[in-house]
C-alpha cells in the first residue's frame, strides 16, 4: 500500500509504502501526484519512505519502471528513507541508474531527507 505524506514543503511530494505494492497504488496514488507536478512544468522532488515493505507485484514493478523512464529528465531529487538492508544493498548497486539526484537516508533522518529533497539547487 502507498500513502501520501502530508505537510511537506512546497514542491516536494512524498509517499510511505507499507506491505506489498500493487499497480493500483501507482495508478491511484503516485501517478496523479507526479502528473500534477509535471503539468505545472516542475521537476519531481520526491521522498519515499519504506519502513516495512513486503515487495511489489510484477504489475507494480512494471509501473515503477515506466514511471522512472517517462519524462526521465524531469526527475530532480529522489530521497529514499529506509533501514531495510536489502533495499540499501540494491540502491547502492543500482542507484546510479535512477533519474535525477538520488540519496538514501536512514529512517531516523526522515526530516533531513525531506529538507534535502526541498533544498534549492547549488
TrEMBL record:
Taxonomy, superkingdom: Bacteria
Chain ranges passing through the membrane: none
Name used for this protein in its record: STAS/SEC14 domain-containing protein
Organism listed in the record: Nocardia xishanensis
Lineage, broadest ranks: Bacteria, Bacillati, Actinomycetota, Actinomycetes, Mycobacteriales
Amino acid at each position: 500500500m502507498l500513502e501520501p505524506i502530508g505537510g511537506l514543503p512546497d514542491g516536494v511530494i512524498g509517499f510511505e509504502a507499507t506491505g506489498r505494492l500493487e499497480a493500483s497504488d501507482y495508478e491511484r496514488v503516485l501517478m496523479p501526484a507526479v502528473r500534477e507536478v509535471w503539468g505545472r512544468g516542475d521537476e519531481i522532488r520526491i521522498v519515499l519512505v519504506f519502513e516495512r515493505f513486503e515487495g511489489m507485484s510484477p504489475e507494480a514493478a512494471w509501473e515503477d519502471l515506466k514511471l522512472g523512464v517517462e519524462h526521465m529528465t524531469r526527475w530532480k531529487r529522489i530521497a529514499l528513507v529506509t533501514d531495510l538492508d536489502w533495499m540499501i544493498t540494491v540502491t547502492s548497486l543500482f542507484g546510479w541508474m535512477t533519474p535525477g539526484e538520488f540519496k538514501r537516508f536512514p529512517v531516523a533522518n526522515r526530516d533531513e531527507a525531506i529538507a534535502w529533497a526541498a533544498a534549492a539547487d547549488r
